[in-house]
Amino acid sequence: MVLGISDPWIAAAYIGCVLAMLLCVVYGVLNWNKGGDDEDAQISEEISWHDKEKNMEEKELGLWDEEG
Fold first, then answer.
1. Exposed e or buried b for every residue in 38-64, given b needs 16+ CB within 10 A?
2. How confident is the model at residue 5, as a pLDDT?
3. Per-residue confidence of the chain (68 residues) as pLDDT tens digits?
4. Residue 11 buriedness (CB in 10 A; 0-12 / 13-18 / 19+)
C-alpha cells in the first residue's frame, strides 16, 4: 500500500499523470521560444494578405472601412 493506495492500477494512473505532466513541462522548456525566427516574414505576409483582401473587397463590393 503506497500512500494509502491499495490498488496498483490506481497507483499506476497517478504515476502516469505525474509523468505526463513532467513530459509536458520538459517539452515546454525545450521549445520555449522556437518559431520566433521568421516573425518578420509572417508579419509582412499578413500585411500583404490584408492589402490583397482590401483591394478585392473594394473592387468587388465597393466597400471597405478605414479602420480595417
1. eeeeeeeeeeeeeeeeeeeeeeeeeee
2. 86
3. 667 888 999 999 999 999 999 999 999 999 988 877 778 888 899 999 999 988 888 888 776 566 55
4. middle
> How far is the C-alpha of 58 from the C-alpha of 68, rounded, in Å?
12
Residue of 20, 18, 22 lying closest to 3 (CA atoms): 18
What is the amino acid identity at position 9?
W
Instruction: State how far the Cα of 68 lies from the Cα of 53, in Å rounded to an integer.
Output: 10
And the C-alpha cell for 6?
Answer: 491499495
